[in-house]
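Weekly modeling sync, notes
Attendees: S.R. (lead), two postdocs, one rotation student

Agenda item 3: backlog of single-chain predictions. S.R. asked that every request posted to the team notebook include the full sequence so nobody has to chase files. The rotation student volunteered to paste the first one in as an example of the format we agreed on. Action items at the bottom.

Example entry:
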Amino acid sequence: GLEKGADYYMHARTFHIKMTLFMVIFLLELWPMITLIRWRIAVRKGAQIDLTNALKLARISTVQAVLVTGIVFAATALARGMSFG
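Predicted structure, as returned to the notebook:
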């Protein structure tokens, strides 16, 4: 058919780059996600939320946006058969 087999992906460096970028984004998201959940719980309880880390969380979001762009480029390269190795 039209699909590439698992062997193609396991030996394509581009695929590994794409998955690594995805994992970095996921790991970067843990702290903001936990923080936002805690803020939401605090707001429901009527407590004040601590915004001292808001700038750091915004910077993490910017880094994640750049990494998502990298994923798009890696996916495009992978679809066109560029393996980089």
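Discussion: group reviewed the output briefly. The chain is about 75% helix and 0% strand.
Action items: rotation student to repeat for the remaining queue; S.R. to check formatting next week.
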